[in-house]
Every structure is written in structure tokens, then in C-alpha cells.
Fold:
Amino acid sequence: MLRTLADPMRVRIVHLLEEAAPPGLRVGELSETLKLPQSTISRHVKTLIDAHIAQVRRDGTSMFYRLSTATSHSALGQLRQLTREILGGDSQILADSRRLAEVLRRRDEHHNFFFSANAPEWDEIRRQCFGGRLNMEDRIGMD
Structure:
């Protein structure tokens, strides 16, 4: 684990994954926040996953990366605490945090726009997907 986190870029990624918490971050969001190519971010994230520091969760066509919940042992928790203490006032980490806040704000705006734009048509969308009558027990196979 220490060898994996010896790279400053991976420490920055861990910091961002911790700040973002659930649902996590997509590679594009990490790339935008860290001002690095997606290929570079992907390589670092794969290393973090292989070390069981991060994990991936699929949501439709999106892949969200977050800190591992499987490796929630005390060593990882202590290491994250130490990282926060050491890097807390680092200007690069602070700039990353500001950029991440902006990225997450835009993500929320996008979601809010989608739902507010589609809310008036929701009944029609539901009818097209499920038919005229939506009976949840029928849909999930309950009697």
C-alpha cells in the first residue's frame, strides 16, 4: 500500500476520492480536476484498484471510482488520516479541492436540469416504458 501511495499523483487522487465520497468520481471528472489526460488518470486509478485502495462501481454506462470499502481496515484509515494531516494545507491539494467542488457543482446542475426538464413528461415516459398501468408488485415479480 505504501509503495502505491509513494506517487504524489495517486495521493492526490485518493484525497479527491475521499472528498467526493459516494457515489465517487468518473475518470473524466478526475482528469478535469487534476488537469491531466484521462489515460494518465486511468493508469493511476488502476494501480489504486489493484492495491485495494480504490474500487469501481458501474452506473449505467458510467464507471465511478471511490475509496475501497472492502479495505476499510485500520491501516488504510490511519494512512488516510495521515495524508489529510500532511497535505491539509498543501496549495496543490487546496487547488484540487476547489476544482473538484466546481466539477461536482456542474454534475449536480446537470442532474437537476435533466430531472426538471423531464418531470413534466414523466407520466408519458413511464407509460412508454411500462405500459398504461404501473403495478410495482407485477414489475418486481411479487404476488
User: Anything to note?
Assistant: The mean pLDDT is 82. The first strand starts at residue 54 and ends at 59. The domain at 4-139 is CATH 1.10.10.10 (Arc Repressor Mutant, subunit A).
